[in-house]
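hi! just following up on the protien thing from before. the input was this:
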Amino acid sequence: MKRSTLRGFGIACILIGILYTGMDRLHPAESTSGEMEQYEEKIAQLESQLKEAKQQLKQYEKQTSSNETNESGGKDQTPSQESAPENEQKDVKEGTLYIYAGQTPYEIAKKLKDMGIIKNGVEMELFLAQPEYARSIQIGQYQVNSSMSIEEIANLITRKSDS
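and the predicted 3d structure came back as:
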């Protein structure tokens, strides 16, 4: 009796598998049609964003061409040229970097990037990973700003002189 029970159970499992496979082929899942709708919506959104970007690009090109004509015409461009260095000075970000015991160059570079002090965290990490800097990183707090170079920041947190 045990043998016939096992055979019956095995045959039932095979039949159920066949039925599920047949049902999937006859009635495709609704999730695929739902996914298609989502993709179509996403495509429509991206196309509209593309159109907006093209319009903005055309407006920018018109502005730059009109600025070029003003520049060749005379002194209309001078005030905006004088204000450019002021804008650059305003973009300098400052902050306090706190270094604790056991922090890695990666963590320090990530903090600096998150603060907006540096643009490339990998470059800073590689610079600090050099043996002469990695062994000398000092615990403490440091005032840093975005006008400082990577080497200046590294010298600051290792308390090395610029010599």
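Strands lie at 94-99, 140-145.
The mean pLDDT is 79.
cheers
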